[in-house]
Amino acid sequence: MAGETRSVKVKIDNVKMIFNTRKGQMTALNGVNLDIHENEFITVVGPSGCGKSTLLNIIAGLLQPSSGEVLCNGQKVEGVGRERGVVFQQYALFPWLTVKKNVCFALEMRGIKGAEAEKEAMRYLQMVDLEKFADHYPKELSGGMKQRVAIARAYAAEPEILLMDEPFGALDAQTRTQLQTDLLNTWEKKQKTCFFITHDVEEAIILGQRCVIMSARPGRIKKIIDIDIPYPRTQETRMSPRFNELKNEIWGEVYKEYLEVRK
Amino acid sequence: MNKKSGGLADRIPTKVWLLISLAAALIVWTILSIIPVTSRSFPNVIVTIQQIKVMYDRGVLLTDIGSSLISVGAGYVIGFVISLPVAILMAWYVPVRNILQPWISFIRNIPPLAYVPLIVLSAGIGRRPQIITITIATFLIMCITIYQGVMNIDETLIRAARVLGAKDRDIFIRVIAPASLPFIMTAIRLGASTALTTLIAAESTGAMAGLGMRIRTLNSNFDTDPMLLYIIIIGIIGLIIEKVIDFAERKLTGWQEKREA
After folding, report:
1. Cβ contact A57:A163 at 8 Å
2. What are the pLDDT tens digits along chain B (261 aa)?
3. B256, A82: Cβ pair inside 8 Å?
4. Residue A33: strand, helix, or coil
5. Confidence of residue A255 (pLDDT cuts 50, 70, 90)
6. Among the CATH numbers 6.10.140.1670, 3.40.109.10, 1.10.3720.10, 3.10.310.40, which is that of B48-253?
7. Nearest-CA residue of chain B relative to A92?
8. Residue B157: closest CA among chain A residues belongs to which residue?
């Protein structure tokens, strides 16, 4: 359970985001408040257009909110920072670099260079079981493997918080299940604060300690549900009655929002 | 895109196909040299090849090729050297883009032959206007190609670098430069073919020698035999340049997805 005793890693304080579009102003987020605790795994679900990605980009520092603020370790977020790593849906690997050099990029930005960086990179690639592919180019890898490299690269930057924007959204069901298991294993081994966006309710439950449900137009936090299923979670967890209860509850909320959006 | 695979056509190696294609071209050429209507434009293969010796003995063949290569090479290199920074400035700074882009689009569609006289008026005759003409033509096509490429660099890659802690300098050198390389290669390819297709216009500036200049002279004397030879030489030069660029492209941008057409 997300206890109040744990320290707050990221504080989202009354964040509002307005975009100026050709059709006028569009409020993407309004009055968003959320405390993300140290080492907590938070998942976010909601219909498309509810501002999930916008919120992630604001936490990452890639976007500045129109009003309100995000505090990370008590400091106001005013730009990107290495303590906040991002994993993108489209992998965003540098195609001109080999798998190993992609991971080295993150290390070099930390000031680790040369042979030491290469050695470190191999360690991170072992973590995602891809050390055999160190000298391959991204184009030679499957989607799932690319995303594992992207996760290894994000870890190599040693962030304190990992922001993930539908990282498994473009993958087939089997690969996605496998990567969920891998991510859980990694997270249990190396605790990190995770903020994970998904459109897949089951994914949100199997991974998260808390699930944030967002509503659209404007994007707000509608409800936060504690996922009180103990770790380690496996694929059998999906069969448990509690899992299905939560799934029905969250799915019901998301579906209502989806119908709202369609109107 | 193959109609069917696994047949005989797939088992013939590419090199052999090249020979077949060449043989077919020679057959078509021979037929054209026999048909009365087209025989005026197409002297037969043997006559054309004999022209190599004729033009060589006249002492013009190598001078013409050399002169054209100098103009094409110089114009092309200068065009590239100018287009790269201009394209990057256009992609980087909105005012530069908004002012220059309409100019480039405007001039690009005018055939160089039309504005060559203006160049001659200011630059005089000889080598200089030839190089200027080719520089302008190659600059326009390469600048617009590189600019569009840089504009289309995947924004996510830049954001990915930024969240990993990359500063502007790192992003430029380690992301934008390599990500632009495929577009730069495309520009180099288009520039080369533009340089050659501009040759006739460039050498209409009172050139003393050159493949384009010679074709015009031969044309006014209805001397078709060597003219066809010269046309073929331009084509061969184009093919050689293309092969060199292909090789460089494979070496430099082999990492690209969706290659191997």
Report:
1. no
2. 556 566 777 888 888 999 999 999 999 999 999 999 988 889 988 989 998 998 989 989 999 999 999 999 999 999 999 999 999 999 988 999 999 999 999 998 899 989 998 999 998 888 999 999 999 999 999 999 999 999 989 989 999 999 999 998 899 899 999 999 999 999 999 999 999 999 888 888 878 889 999 998 998 888 888 999 999 999 999 999 999 999 998 888 888 876 444
3. no
4. strand
5. confident
6. 1.10.3720.10
7. B157
8. A92
- Kindly list the structural domains of chain A, giving each domain's residue range(s) and its CATH number in brackets, ordered by start: 1-83+160-221+258-263 (3.40.50.300), 90-158 (no CATH)
Task: Say yes or no for a CB contact (<8 Å) between A95 and B256.
Answer: yes
Percent with pLDDT over 90 in chain A? 58
Alpha carbon distance A1, A18 (integer Å): 34
* Cβ <8 Å between A96 and B178: yes
Chain A residue numbers touching B164 (CB-CB < 8 A):
82, 85, 105-106, 109, 153, 157
* C-alpha gyration radius of chain B: 22
* Amino acid occupying residue A208: G
Sequence-separated contacts (24+) of B82-86 with Cβ below 8 Å = B82/B135, B82/B139, B82/B143, B83/B138, B83/B139, B83/B142, B83/B143, B83/B146, B83/B187, B83/B191, B84/B142, B84/B146, B84/B184, B86/B139, B86/B143, B86/B147
* Chain B residues closer than 8 Å to A96 by CB: 178-179, 181, 253, 255
Inter-chain CB proximity B170 and A80 less than 8 Å: no
Mean pLDDT of A245-259: 89
pTM: 0.80
Separation of alpha carbons A156 and A123, rounded Å: 9
CB contact under 8 A, B163 and A62: yes
Query: Between A and B, how many CB-CB pairs are < 8 A?
Result: 63
Reported ipTM = 0.86
Q: Provide the shortest C-alpha distance from residue A86 to chain B (in Å).
A: 7
